[in-house]
Design a protein that fits this description.
Layout (H helix, E strand, L loop, with lengths): L16 E4 L2 E3 L4 E3 L1 E5 L2 E6 L9 E4 L4 E4 L1 E6 L14 H11 L1 E10 L5 H15 L3 E8 L7 H11 L3 E5 L10 H14 L2 E5 L3 H13 L6 H6 L2 H18 L3 E3 L5 H12 L4 E3 L3 H5 L10 H6 L12 H10 L15 H4 L19 H10 L6 H15 L17 E11 L18 E11 L2 E5 L2 E2 L16 H13 L84
Parallel strand pairs: 1-6, 2-7, 8-9, 9-10, 10-11, 11-12, 12-13, 13-14
Antiparallel strand pairs: 1-4, 2-3, 4-5, 7-15, 15-16, 16-17, 17-18
Helix pairs in contact: 4-7, 7-8
């Protein structure tokens, strides 16, 4: 397989750097060593390294040297309600680098009727012109049909895409049915890709939205009320069931509630190949803000699935992340200005969905998990970088400090703190949902593909310097188990002789069944409907009957039924 990247020759050359005195931390081990970088690649790791003269030294004494973060869920170009995020590939990746993330995987939202290949090419071209760090792409499929197979095959084999997202929500717009998911998952399994889902019950959400608007609830609180926790939990269970039957690996994006996380944890304990992704917002804050008296503040938190109102949810998700029941942390970055959100000021269903989190992600995990003793430094590297790199098949190029890996390196100060503010963050959006929160753990130096982009608090990035990172199919981390399950799950018939006994005659009868109504009555009834008279019936014995061809007997004797004697004593 060959993937082309025409921009490689145009990228600025990486610096010659030696990182001295730090503690190198990977997902599986920690050790003290110096790291030498040249031409964007890690060339040497060890003590007393022999390096060329004139090499710039990066002081990492007393700090950790970790792989650059991999954010596996960003939405820097995907439109919501007809509006594009205020922070695009340039602003978004600039903020990512400032927080220690050096690789993103962005979601290509393919609108119905648009070719998957066309959408991919357009997204990739835009990112190559604007992104400041390396990137890869997921494809979001909004209309499933048989004709997609050839495009999927081309994307996987020729374009370097190995993950596709399906929506279980957004009825009549993006939502896929269970049968469509089952068919799609089977095809993705055969092609060696990973199925992703946005897990919410779109039918229930649609009905709840209508009901709340009917009641006059139009503010942001209506969003969380119409997306109760149960619709996420049910959809997660259903997606796992479908993936299990199709024997396809499943990645659940944006795990926002305790019960949804529990479903994933229980499924994994049963050996199912499923992965869960809590995001920056669900690990650091909760949904109580939807009831803020300030409309702009409440609207800033609108996203799907919504943040859970239970204030204990973030710590619960952190605990599952720490014990391995959840595997990856992402940001689901999609920031919209207050003016953009205000399109839905009179109707919460029109508020563009999305929040920030790309810059704060790694500090949130360190503060809430490592500083509290729930997670060690190696597990921190795993959930912020290595696990995503392995799942999406860019490891060990990304997600590891090793000779030959890309020089995506972060010098991390575990003792330094940062207070979040929209006035100081590196995004352009004027609000930050983590406003005023203080987090321990800060990236003090960031090296992206061998280039020093953050040092002494100063961010120095080049627009369009990010490279597209192709991803091969059949990642070992995922598909070793899928292959084993395929062998175990082969259906086998039972050898037996032919049946030669009596066979009952079955009379074919076609009964007329009235169609089920497909449209509902008025959503907001103005008057009460009179109660139905249960004594009236439309049943009649007049006309032809289905059993008229069976001869009638002159008399009929009543016998006791199987359950006992009848209480009928007279037929008069």
């Amino acid at each position: 397989m060959s993937f082309q990247n025409k921009k490689n020759c145009a990228r600025p050359a990486g610096d010659r750097l030696i990182i001295k005195g730090g503690k190198v931390v990977n997902d599986d081990q920690s050790f003290y060593a110096d790291v030498y970088v040249e031409d964007g690649i890690i060339k040497q790791i060890g003590e007393n390294l022999i390096v060329p003269s004139g090499v710039k030294t990066v002081d990492a004494y007393g700090q950790l040297v970790i792989p650059g973060g991999v954010d596996a869920n960003t939405n820097l170009l995907a439109p919501q309600k007809g509006q594009y995020p205020t922070d695009d590939f340039y602003n978004g990746t600039r903020a990512a680098l400032s927080g220690g993330t050096t690789t993103i995987i962005d979601h290509v939202l393919v609108e119905p009727g648009i070719s998957l290949l066309t959408a991919f090419d357009q997204w990739k071209e835009t990112a190559e012109q604007r992104a400041c760090c390396d990137f890869s792409l997921h494809l979001d499929i909004t209309r499933w049909h048989d004709g997609l197979y050839e495009e999927l095959e081309s994307l996987i084999k020729d374009k370097g895409v190995n993950s596709f997202l399906f929506f279980m929500a957004y009825k009549d717009k993006y939502m896929s049915s269970d049968s469509q998911l089952y068919e799609a998952f089977g095809i993705l399994r055969d092609l060696g890709a990973i199925a992703q889902v946005h897990a919410e019950n779109g039918d229930i959400i649609d009905e709840e939205q209508k009901k709340l608007l009917c009641l006059g609830i139009t503010g942001p609180e209506g969003h969380v009320l119409s997306h109760p926790e149960e619709v996420e939990t049910e959809a997660v269970y259903r997606a796992i069931t479908i993936a299990k039957q199709a024997n396809c690996p499943l990645y659940v994006t944006k795990v926002m509630s305790k019960s949804a996380a529990d479903v994933i944890a229980k499924a994994r304990k049963k050996g199912m190949v499923v992965y869960g992704e809590p995001i920056t917002a669900s690990l650091a804050t909760d949904g109580s803000h939807y009831w803020s008296k300030d409309w702009a503040t409440a609207a800033a938190f609108v996203m799907s699935p919504p943040l859970n109102p239970d204030p204990s949810t973030p710590q619960y998700l952190i605990s599952l992340l720490a014990c391995g029941d959840l595997q990856v942390t992402s940001s689901a970055q999609a920031s919209f200005s207050t003016a953009q959100k205000a399109v839905g000021k009179d109707d919460f269903t029109l508020i563009p969905e999305g929040t920030n989190g790309i810059e704060e992600r790694m500090s949130v995990v360190w503060d809430r998990a490592v500083s509290t003793g729930k997670m060690d430094e190696n597990e921190f590297v795993a959930v912020t970088s290595t696990n995503a790199a392995k799942l999406f098949n860019i490891y060990p190029r990304k997600g590891r400090i090793a000779v030959g890996s890309d020089a995506d390196i972060v010098v991390w100060n575990p003792k330094e703190t940062r207070t979040i503010s929209a006035k100081t963050h590196n995004l352009t959006v004027e609000v930050n949902i983590f406003e005023g929160l203080e987090f321990r753990g800060v990236a003090t130096v960031v090296i992206s593909s061998g280039r020093l982009v953050l040092e002494d608090g100063k961010l120095n990035v080049n627009e369009g310097s990010g490279r597209f990172v192709p991803r091969k199919s059949f990642p070992d981390t995922v598909y070793k188990r899928i292959r084993a399950r395929s062998k175990m799950a082969e259906a086998r018939g039972v050898p037996r002789g032919n049946y030669d006994g009596p066979v009952h005659d079955v009379i074919s009868m076609t009964m007329s069944v009235p169609p089920t109504p497909t449209t509902r009555g008025p959503s907001c009834p103005k008057s009460l409907i009179a109660p139905r008279n249960l004594h009236q019936s439309g049943f009649t014995l007049s006309g032809a009957q289905v059993d008229d061809h069976i001869p009638r007997r002159s008399t009929q004797r009543i016998v006791a039924p199987p359950g006992g004697k009848s209480n009928i004593t007279s037929l008069s």
